[in-house]
Amino acid sequence: MVASVHFSRLLLSIFDEQEIRRPHPDPSSPSWFTMPEGSIFLHVKYIAYSLFVSLSTS
User: Fold this and answer.
1) In whole angstroms, what is the distance from residue 31 CA to residue 18 CA?
2) pLDDT tens per residue across span 35-47
């Protein structure tokens, strides 16, 4: 179980690094990519992370 938590943190850090490397949104990207409340990827990442945690702890 410790390994799965470590793996999920590693996944999140990889995603965060990719978001940090992107200095500004691509103008050709769709409008949901630049929503002020946060990109849809952030919501998808949170849902996937919570699903992964609930599966690994059960």
Assistant:
1) 19
2) 555 566 677 777 8
